[in-house]
Amino acid sequence: MTKFITRTLLLISTLFTFSAFAEEDAVSTGLFNSVAISGYDTVAYFTESKPVEGNDKFQTVWRDATWKFSSQENLTLFKQAPTKYAAQYGGYCAWAMSGGKTAGTDPEVWHIEDGKLYLNYNKNVQAEWFEKIESDIISADKFYPEVTNVKKYK
After folding, report:
1. 100 inside domain
2. Hey, what's the signal peptide range on this chain (predicted)?
């Protein structure tokens, strides 16, 4: 019985150790699909100043995620400069990333700061993020390559 308990504890501690070092995907996608930012058009935030749902007719794969667009023009713009238009931190919540964590986002809760798109989990989280936006961006910029596999794309 002692061997069984020892082996079980060893297995559990090993699993927790591996999960502590697991990296998230560079881009936040749905649980059962690989669609970035819930299928919203990341370029439209810049060109239309509002969230616009993408269309299956206009899509591309970038950083192993499917990005959808509302028009061929927006798809073309994204393909020409994906890092210019993609949501920061792969579409993970900017406030959560500032604490070294990942969280999903609501595509309706967004903000462009210094020409970069940031998404947040909800409006309450965004309000908190706005209170320390500059320091939170600095922290999130540091944590993003540590908690995701984005380094593999460089």
Report:
1. yes
2. 1-22
Angstrom distance (rounded) from CA 37 to CA 16: 29
Structure tokens that stand for 148 in this block: 């995701």
Q: What is the pLDDT of residue 3?
A: 58
- Dihedrals φ, ψ of 63, to 5°? 55, 45
Q: Is residue 12 part of a domain?
A: no
Assigned domain for 17 exists: no
**How crowded is residue 82: how many other Cβ atoms within 10 Å of its Cβ?**
15
Do 119 and 37 contact (CB within 8 A), yes or no?
yes
User: How far apart, in whole angstroms, are the C-alpha atoms of residue 70 and residue 46?
Assistant: 13
Length, in residues, of the chain? 154
Q: Dihedrals φ, ψ of 6, to 5°?
A: -60, -45
Query: What is the residue range of 79's domain?
Result: 24-153
- Residue 18 is predicted with a pLDDT of 40
The predicted structure's pLDDT at residue 21: 53
What pTM was computed for the model?
A: 0.85
List, for the chain, all residue ranges whose pLDDT scores fall below the cut of 70. 1-22
- Residues with Cβ within 8 Å of residue 12, at least 6 apart in sequence: none
Task: Give the start-end residues of each E strand in the chain.
Answer: 55-62, 65-69, 106-113, 116-120
